[in-house]
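sorry for the late reply, my laptop died twice this morning and i had to redo everyting from scratch. anyway the thing you sent over, i finally got around to it. pasting the sequence first so we're on the same page, its 166 residues, then the predicted structure underneath. double check i copied it right bc i was rushing
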Amino acid sequence: MFNIEVDNSLPKAELYQDLNQQLQALLTGETDLICNAAQFSAFIMQSLPELNWAGFYFARQEELVLGPYVGKVACTRIPFQRGVCGAAARSLTTQRVDDVHAVPDHIACDAASNSELVIPVIVNGELKAVFDIDSPVTHRFTQEDQEGIETLVASFIEASDWNWKA
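ok and here's the structure:
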């Protein structure tokens, strides 16, 4: 059993550095993409406060297909042309939204979500997935959160075998 230890008294930069060390230890010795995506989603949900959804959507042609996640039942497919996840897929840039209700084409899979952070998962220059985190709190994600979670996603990418085929 793996125990996650979170010291919320640390400055955010140090907190994310500590979380990254724990994540690397959790994923050591395992390269299966689906297994690591499931573990990563659970790790994020257990490590960070004020979240109601964390998980992956995998890129399939011009849409995102639901992958491993932790949270309520979710949208199964998201076209690249819609929503915050679609914007991350189209632009290949992280999307940090303080109030999802201000986004005209936001896709509300969970009405309790008020803010969102979506990080594109890019491997060898190719979009493979997006990692999506939702919070019931508006303005939940700061620039420090974004940078910290981007570092965690990079560790997930490095630990995983991207030659996996469904």
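The chain has one domain: 12-159.
thats about all i looked at so far, will dig more tmrw
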